[in-house]
Specification:
Layout lengths: L2 H22 L20 H4 L10 H10 L2 E6 L2 E6 L2 H9 L5 E3 L3 H7 L9 H15 L1 H23 L4 E2 H18 L10 H6 L1 H4 L11 H25 L8 H10 L7 H32 L1 H16 L10 H5 L2 H14 L5 E5 L3 E3 L2 E3 L4 E4 L1 H5 L41 H18 E7 L2 E5 L2 E5 L2 E6 L13
Parallel strand pairs: 2-8
Antiparallel strand pairs: 1-2, 3-5, 4-12, 5-8, 6-7, 9-12, 10-11
GO biological process, one term: brassinosteroid biosynthetic process
Organism: Rhododendron griersonianum
Membrane topology: Single-pass membrane protein
């Protein structure tokens, strides 16, 4: 090999070595949080996405907490990332929304939900859409919706009790989707030739995945599902415009009215992305929480006893035993709300919250460079024994006397700050009403217990099959898990 070739090889080796060194040691004007950037480009992505089969802190997070502390750096899918389970820092991130941080999710999230989805918009536009959604999920609307939620719960429980067993995650997701789709777009699966929910099912598996748009990959299936669902929503939009209704009957009518205003800032693309996100978000997280709630009741008979007593007391206080739930009865469910909070604490329906540093930030001696992604990890906060005594023990009474309607430094099951989930109250209404119908009218038993499977983009009790029976018609079975 000649001198020129040797020089070229030497330069290549030096360049690669320098590149690897710079990758593993990012430039920073101060002190970065401790951690490892992993392999060039790949970072520590594979470890981050590894499944977790318990309710405890994800192994990826726990291992690094033990090594580096509650705030550490890493690299995921080519991005420089700070991960936090520090309550003060996480709270600081939420409080500085729009000032020092902004919502910033992975590329796959924006491709699947749309580049102008509500989670990716900021400032006035985000507040405008949030107020639109509150028109649907605010207290006044929920109060009117209560009878429909109760009817849906009773109707589905009745149907499930006639079957040998149901996969509860899938069955509850279908129940919630049907109700939400009716309120959003007057969609009725039985009268439609297209199965809209099927288009959403693939999303969960590819929501946070490697962005490889190749047939057979989870990401490709996600995009195909989005394309089909968006096509259905666009067709519906055109139909409504061609034949406008005289009176508003669903959220889509309200959106069309906003689109028709001369001074509107709403565009058709943003409106369709909003409908798409609402349809998906409303059923996926709530069905997870509902399934886990049923599972926790099977595993904690004393909790079930107390919950059942609260709801049977509501029935006894009624003048007419056949009347439906009232808003006052719903608001009186003290132990039920404690139970729901404990359920979502352990179910961790929000596995990761993504933000981006808008400028260089100093916090507790560390420097967060501008442009870096910050991930707040609610599961690690919710499973911190310094905050929650014996965190893996299901104990609704730990919420007694605690303010639990919103977010706090130590409770972020529904997010935090100005981006606190606007559908939180809708989720609580659906769960409380379902639990009321369940514990007062039915018994149930696990036919197949399933397993908890979690990744940063996917978490659900997989294969949890349940047999339901009306209280006076309990089916005989050899299963020991029966309540």
């Amino acid at each position: 090999m000649g001198p020129v070739a040797l020089c070229i090889v030497a330069l290549v080796v030096i360049s690669i070595t320098h590149w690897v060194y710079r990758w593993r040691n990012p430039r920073c004007s101060g002190e970065l949080p401790p951690g490892s950037m992993g392999l060039p480009l790949l970072g520590e992505t594979l470890d981050f996405f590894a499944p977790n089969t318990s309710c405890n802190i994800p192994p990826f997070i726990k291992k690094r907490i033990d090594r580096y502390g509650p705030v550490f750096r890493t690299s995921l899918v080519g991005r420089a990332v700070i991960i936090s389970i520090d309550a003060d820092f996480s709270y600081f991130v939420f409080q500085q929304e729009g000032k020092l941080f902004k919502s910033c999710y992975p590329v796959t999230f924006n491709e699947i939900f749309g580049r102008q989805n509500v989670g990716s918009l900021h400032g006035f536009m985000y507040k405008y859409l949030k107020n639109m959604v509150l028109n649907l999920f605010g207290p006044l609307s929920l109060k009117k919706m209560l009878p429909e939620v109760e009817l849906a719960a009773y109707t589905n429980l009745k149907r499930w009790s006639s079957q040998e067993s149901v996969d509860l995650k899938d069955a509850s997701a279908s129940m919630i989707f049907d109700l939400t789709a009716k309120k959003l777009i007057s969609y009725d699966q039985e009268k439609s030739s297209d199965n809209l929910r099927e288009s959403f099912v693939a999303f969960m598996k590819g929501l946070i995945s490697f962005p490889l748009d190749i047939p057979g990959t989870a990401y490709h299936k996600c995009l195909q599902g989005r394309k089909k669902a968006m096509g259905m929503l666009k067709n519906l939009l055109q139909e409504r415009r061609a034949k406008p209704r005289e009176k508003q009957s669903d959220f889509f009518d309200y959106v069309l009215e906003e689109l028709g205003r001369e001074d509107t800032i709403l565009t058709e693309a943003i409106a369709l992305d909003l409908m798409f996100v609402l349809l998906f978000a409303s059923f996926e997280s709530t069905s997870l929480a509902m399934t886990m709630a049923t599972k926790f009741l099977l595993e904690n008979p004393l909790v079930l006893k107390e919950l059942r007593e609260e709801h049977e007391a509501i029935l006894r206080r009624r003048e007419n035993s056949n009347s439906g739930l009232t808003w006052e009865e719903y608001k009186s469910m003290t132990f039920t709300f404690q139970f729901i909070n404990e359920t979502v604490r352990m179910a961790n329906i929000v596995p990761a919250i993504f933000r981006k540093a808008l400028k260089e930030i100093k916090f507790k001696g560390y420097t967060i460079p501008a442009g870096w992604t910050v991930i707040v990890c609610p599961p690690a906060v919710h499973m911190n024994p310094a905050i929650y005594k014996d965190p893996l023990h299901f104990n609704p009474r730990r919420w007694e006397g605690m303010e639990s309607n919103g977010a706090s430094k130590h409770f972020m099951a529904f997010g935090g700050g100005m981006r606190f989930c606007v559908g939180t109250d809708f989720t609580k209404v659906q769960m409380a009403v379902f639990l009321h119908c369940l514990v007062t009218k039915y018994r149930w038993q696990a036919i197949k217990g399933g397993e908890i499977v979690r990744t940063p983009g996917l978490q659900f009790p997989n294969g949890f099959h349940v047999q339901f029976s009306e209280k006076n018609e309990l089916k005989q079975d050899t299963t020991t898990n029966c309540i």
